[in-house]
Amino acid sequence: MDEVKIQSIDEQSTDLTDLKELILFNDEVNTFDHVIKCLVEVCHHTTEQAEQCALIAHLKGKCAVKSGSFGELKPLADELTRRFLTVDIQ
Questions:
Q1: Residue 71's beta-bridge partner residues?
Q2: N or C, which end of the chain is more exposed by having fewer CB within 10 Å?
Q3: How do residues 59-78 score in pLDDT, each as one tens digit?
Q4: Burial of residue 10 (number of CB atoms within 10 Å: 0-12, 13-18, 19+)
Q5: pLDDT in tens, 2-36
């Protein structure tokens, strides 16, 4: 007979706690066009999605632009930083 593995709720919830957010911070250096272009190229946002994130960061000071594991977000954060955007993984 085949064995069936049952995953407990505790095991399932640990996956959710590992989720991080890539946060884009507003700055006085980069243009909206540059930020939008970076989000489209690096994070694979649609133009509309990137525009909304840029506007939220401008108005509120920061915006979560992507969710995932630290391992998934780190290369994106590194590339956005290389392109002079201010980001953090939280």
A1: none
A2: N
A3: 999 999 999 999 999 999 99
A4: exposed
A5: 555 554 444 444 456 689 999 999 999 999 999 99
Instruction: Kindly state the DSSP code that residue 7 receives in the 8-state scheme.
Output: P
Paired with 24 in beta bridges are 63, 87
CA gap 65, 61 in Å, rounded: 13
Q: At what angle do helices 47-60 and 32-43 cross, to 10 degrees?
A: 130
Q: Whole-prediction pTM value?
A: 0.81
Query: In this structure, what token pair is assigned to residue 2?
Result: 């085949």
Amino acid type, 51: E
Contact residues for 47 (Cβ-Cβ < 8 A; gap 6+)? 36, 40
Domain boundaries, the chain: 30-89
